[in-house]
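I would like you to sit down with the pair of lines that follows and say whether C-alpha cells and residues agree.
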Amino acid sequence: MRNFNLENSAGSGELAGDASGWELDAGPDSLAFRSAMRRFVGGVTVITTLHEGRPWGMTVSAFTPACMEPPTVLVCVNKDTVTGGDITKDRRFAVNILSQDQIEISQHCSRPREDKFVDHFVVPAEEVPGRVQMPVLKHSLITFDCKVNMTIVASSHLVILASVSSILAPAAKRPLLYGEGRYMHGISLEAVAV
C-alpha cells in the first residue's frame, strides 16, 4: 500500500490521505464505474422528442452545458433507444431540467423497455412560443429546445453536441436531484452556516 500525505502530494497531483482507506479500488470495470457514479449527485434531466407524432421522454444522467457562445449542450443517450433513434432521424430534441414537482415524470421516463409517451406531462402547444419545436414538460426548471450539431458514436451511446434554439424557464422552482440511488433535494450551505 502506498500512503500519501499533504507534504509529499502538494503540487504533485497525488491524493492526500491513506490509500488503504478506499472503499472502492478498481480498474476500468463497468460495475465499479456504475457504483462510483451512484455517488455523483446531480440534477435530473428528461430529453423529449416526437415519436410517431407524439411527445416522448427519456430520463438521462449525461447532460452538461458545453459552450456559452453560441449556447451549446452535450447529452449522451443509448443509440439503441427510441430517443436515440428519434434524435438521429429528426436532429431535434429538448432538454428538460426537472423540479421537485416532477418525480413522477422522471420515474415514468426511466423505466426500461416501456412506452415513454408523455402526452399528459407536456405544456399545451398553444402555451409554448412558436419558435419551440420539441415538447416542453410542465413544471420544469428550464427547457432547452435544441438542434443537433454533431453526433459521435461512443460504444453503446451517442454523444450529441447541440445548439440551443430556445430557452424557457418559469418562475423559480426547487431542483430535483438524484444520487446514491435516490431522489434528493438541496439546501443552501449559507443558510445552514448562519
About this structure: The helical segments are 6-9, 30-37, 82-90, 103-109, 189-193. The chain has a mean pLDDT of 86. The first strand starts at residue 3 and ends at 4.
